[in-house]
């Protein structure tokens, strides 16, 4: 499947921002893209950098106006969308989320950001509730995808959960500023190699509330190589062809998923694990005996 990364600067005018998104999506479709991904909170201004950030004026509920617009756009353009947005799940409860819409306009589902930073310009832990939907995967055509948002990118567990659930690609919509390009790229390469997956990072651009978002969107192949050089600073569309066969090839060549030893990792989740295979939880893989084959 050919995908498109839309690197752009959302503004404070909702209608103008949506028109800009529509133009980029239709341009991507005209160039053969079957799926389009936008940056983190891609249809909203970066209100988190305000003195007292209030999500309420920006938040939308499931089934609301934003979802209706996204479904109509996906259906009319004939593309799938990964659309990050500020979600109101309950009155007074907000999430940093992403909506996945299929080309026929139906909603495949949503992901809610699990890892929330609390640093200047990104005080998300004080604004959003942590994600409560786990790490779901979604099937779009022949592609199985997952989503990680912003700060999630620096935690390997979400990527591993998505890979084990069958993801071929993980989309990472971000809103990063300052001199952090190499850090984001290094983590993307690491996730791709360790899990044998494509990693697609889509970053904002533009200056908002004293922050300079720098773009640098990229696609990493399952073998850790870049599909092409990252995008420069500025608005634009990055096109990339994703080959599901490359995931199979990478995992055969570098069988890291096969060589995992889950019993030895139980402490990561704070779970006491029995010493013998007889006491394993249902469905848990046992480690091979010493000297045995994987």
Summarize the structure.
With 294 residues, the protein is α/β, with parallel strands linked by helices.
Shape: globular
Number of helices: 5
Mean pLDDT: 92
DSSP summary, beta strand count: 13
CATH architecture of the largest domain: 4-Layer Sandwich
Rg (C-alpha, Å): 19 Å
Q: Regarding CATH, which class of the largest domain?
A: Alpha Beta
The separation of the N and C termini measures 33 Å
Q: What spatial order of strands do you see in the largest sheet?
A: 5-4-3-2-1-13
Largest sheet: 6 strands, mixed
Q: Give me the CATH fold name of the largest domain.
A: Nitrilase/N-carbamoyl-D-aminoacid amidohydrolase
Structural class from helices and strands? Answer: alpha/beta
Strand content: 15-25%
Spans of 5+ residues with little confidence (pLDDT < 50)? 288-294
SSE arrangement, N to C: EHEHEEEEEHEHEEEEEH
Q: How many structural domains can be distinguished in the coordinates?
A: 2
Q: Which percent range fits the helix content?
A: 10-25%
In CATH terms, the superfamily of the largest domain is Carbon-nitrogen hydrolase
What does the secondary structure layout of this molecule look like, with pairings?
Blueprint: E1 2-7, H1 14-30, E2 35-37, H2 65-77, E3 80-90, E4 93-101, E5 107-112, E6 138-140, E7 143-147, H3 156-164, E8 169-174, H4 181-195, E9 198-203, E10 205-208, E11 211-214, E12 218-220, E13 236-241, H5 244-253
Parallel strand pairs: 1-2, 2-3, 7-8, 8-9
Antiparallel strand pairs: 1-13, 3-4, 4-5, 6-7, 9-12, 10-11
């Amino acid at each position: 499947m050919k995908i498109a990364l839309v690197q752009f600067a959302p503004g404070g005018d909702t209608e103008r921002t949506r028109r800009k998104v529509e133009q980029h999506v239709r341009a991507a479709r005209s160039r053969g893209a079957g799926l389009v991904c936008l940056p983190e909170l891609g249809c909203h201004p970066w209100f988190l950098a305000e003195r007292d950030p209030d999500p309420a004026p920006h938040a939308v509920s499931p089934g609301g106006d934003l979802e209706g617009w996204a479904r109509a756009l996906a259906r009319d353009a004939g593309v799938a969308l990964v659309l990050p947005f500020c979600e109101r799940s309950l009155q007074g409860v907000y999430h940093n989320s992403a909506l996945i819409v299929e080309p026929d306009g139906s909603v495949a589902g949503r992901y809610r950001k699990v890892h929330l930073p609390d640093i200047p310009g990104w005080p998300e832990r004080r604004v959003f509730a942590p994600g409560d939907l786990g790490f779901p995967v979604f099937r779009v055509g022949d592609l199985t995808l997952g989503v990680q948002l912003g700060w999630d990118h620096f935690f390997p567990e979400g990527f591993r959960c998505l890979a084990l659930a069958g993801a071929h690609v993980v989309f990472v919509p971000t809103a990063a500023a300052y001199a952090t390009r190499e850090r984001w790229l290094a983590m993307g390469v690491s996730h791709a190699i360790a899990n044998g997956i494509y990693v697609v990072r889509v970053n904002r651009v533009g200056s908002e509330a004293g922050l300079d978002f720098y773009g640098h969107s990229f696609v990493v192949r399952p073998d850790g190589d870049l599909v092409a050089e990252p995008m420069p600073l500025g608005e634009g569309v990055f096109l990339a062809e994703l080959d599901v066969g490359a995931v199979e090839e990478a995992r055969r060549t570098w069988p890291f998923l096969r060589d995992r030893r889950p019993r030895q990792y139980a402490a990561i989740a704070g779970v006491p694990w029995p010493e013998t295979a007889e006491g394993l939880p249902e469905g848990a893989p046992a480690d091979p005996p010493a000297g045995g084959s994987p």
